[in-house]
Design a protein that fits this description.
Layout lengths: L3 H4 L2 H4 L7 H4 L32 H11 L6 E4 L2 H12 L6 E4 L6 H8 L3 E4 L10 H7 L4 E7 L11 H10 L3 E5 L21 E6 L12 E4 L2 H10 L7 H10 L3 H22 L5 E4 L6 E6 L2 H10 L5 E2 L9 E5 L3 H12 L3
Parallel strand pairs: 2-3, 2-4, 4-5, 5-6
Antiparallel strand pairs: 1-7, 6-7, 8-9, 9-11, 10-11
Catalytic activity: L-histidinol phosphate + 2-oxoglutarate = 3-(imidazol-4-yl)-2-oxopropyl phosphate + L-glutamate
GO molecular function: histidinol-phosphate transaminase activity; pyridoxal phosphate binding
Pfam families: Aminotran_1_2 (PF00155)
């Protein structure tokens, strides 16, 4: 049975969070002399001299309308990476607890574990890039606090079997963190609709991918109200700046534009796969539910270096476990994809 008090670090249970000026007064006023801000403004066209809303209320309300999740179940961070780090700092005792990661997967889970002095137990995905359920069960002990699952997975591009994830949610007493950074491109539905079913579920999403806001650094976590309260307690007071909040709110009013881009990305992905299959050095292209494809080639290093010499940058993933020989290619615009294909046609 999941009980958040059995997971929380003792110092976090007893933590009194920093109380900012904007926590103590949230209404409207004609004169603000409480936060030691520069009252004269900013040397910019837009004034950023006032501290932002520490809980990003307006952005959360708009996200609530789009996602169908109450605002109280939403955490916003400086990218999803901040949410990952806060989960470690809230629930994992350094040098004592452990988490489970399932490589090949997003590298920040391991990095955050290292930063926080928490053991990351690796249970490799199966050859078809699905969960090794027996391996995960064997890796779990009384100090296992978090299991990280990226779905659709980076760098492989595939979605993880939903039944397997639900089995973990139903049987693991810690938190199951599902990273859905690429969910907008997937045929599978998001797990955020399951929040009321699983108290130990945390879903990560981002505005960096389909929404095209990578430069703003706005990540989302969806979870039970008690988990969100913990994350808000631990985060820095003003973790999402005012410019990012304003621009994210503006972007969130353009859902149709994003949906059109998603549709075109999927069309371009299918087209790129067909064209790449014509090359003799392409040995396999793995099924993708994301805005990138994983391509197995006969000589990834030479192909990568050749493309770099032509000003085309992809990712060499050939040294990643279970991705030997593989290059990861993001789906570009039609013209960018054409340049890639035309350049590869000249490769010898």
């Amino acid at each position: 049975m999941f009980d958040i008090n059995n997971l929380l670090r003792e110092n976090i249970k007893n933590l009194t969070p920093y109380s900012s000026a904007r926590d103590e007064y949230t209404g409207e006023a004609s004169v603000f002399l409480d936060a030691n801000e520069n009252a004269f403004g900013s040397p910019l066209h837009t004034a950023y001299n006032r501290y932002p809303d520490p809980l990003q209320y307006k952005v959360k309300i708009r996200l609530s309308e789009i996602k169908g999740v109450p605002a109280r179940n939403i955490f916003l961070g400086n990218g999803s990476d901040e949410a990952i780090d806060i989960l470690f700092r809230s629930f994992c005792n350094p040098g004592v607890d452990n988490v489970i990661i399932v490589p090949p997967t997003y590298g920040m889970y391991q990095v955050s574990a290292n930063i926080n002095d928490v053991e990351a137990r690796k249970v490799l995905l199966t050859p078809d890039y699905q969960l090794d359920m027996e391996g995960i069960a064997e890796a779990i002990d009384k100090h296992t606090k978090l299991i990280f699952i990226c779905s659709p997975n980076n760098p492989t591009g595939n979605s993880i079997n939903r039944d397997d994830i639900e089995t973990l949610l139903a049987n693991f007493s810690g938190l199951v963190v599902i990273d859905e950074a690429y969910i907008n491109f997937s045929r599978q539905k998001s797990f955020i609709q399951e929040l009321t079913e699983y108290a130990n579920l945390v879903v990560l999403q981002t505005l960096s991918k389909a929404w095209g806001l990578a430069g703003l650094r706005v990540g989302m976590a969806f979870a039970s109200e008690e988990i969100i309260e913990v994350m808000n307690k631990v985060k820095p007071p003003y973790n999402v700046n005012e410019a990012s909040q304003q621009l994210a709110l503006e972007a969130l009013n353009n859902v149709q534009q994003v949906n059109n881009w998603i549709k075109e990305t999927l069309e371009q992905r299918d087209n790129l796969v067909l064209r790449l299959k014509e090359f003799g050095f392409v040995q396999d292209i793995y099924p993708s539910d994301a805005n990138f494809i994983l391509v197995k080639t006969s000589d990834p290093k030479k192909i990568y270096d050749y493309l770099v010499s032509k000003g085309i940058i992809i990712r060499d993933r050939s040294k990643v476990e279970l991705c030997e020989g593989c290059l990861r290619i993001t789906i570009g615009t039609p013209s960018e994809n054409n340049v890639l294909i035309e350049t590869l046609q000249q490769y010898k």
